[in-house]
Description:
mainly alpha; 8 helices; about 5% strand; spliceosome
Amino acid sequence: MANVGNQQQAINKTAPGKHGNVLPLWGNEKTMNLNPMILTNVLSSPYFKVQLYELKTYHEVVDEIYFKVNHVEPWEKGSRKTAGQTGMCGGVRGVGTGGIVSTAFCLLYKLFTLKMTRKQVMGLITHTDSPYIRALGFMYIRYTQPPPDLVDWYDGFLDDEEMPIAQQVNWIMFLSTVGLRVSSTSRPGEAA
Length: 192
């Protein structure tokens, strides 16, 4: 493991052309690279500590996502007070002050505790029953995979018509920060 700033970076090499089933973990192996306020709220959430503690398998967690997730924002709607905040602490970034952490982020961290395989992550992002299952799969990739690999993971999925448009816009904005330019005239997923 190599230290990168304050984060540890795990490096798992696989044979060229073969990915194997073990996923590398990029960044902090304990926090999943989550914002500290979100992580604190997840870990202290009764939902995470009680209900999700009971879930032991990947399939149980996927079923829970199907039945419980109806948005992928970090906070439950209406649970945060942002009045009077300005700058980066305002409501724009979504993490200025705590609220009730969302079911989606509790489940996202639960997936992280399962130490998923490549096959399981592929199962999430290709799942046909719910766009929220796919969204959490892509969020898992975003938080845990090496940045140079993100474009390969997302390629071919950005034009998912069932995925909430806000999530597609977030992906396009993120991909532009890692070097993939997307123009306003190209379809999501097409390089400008």
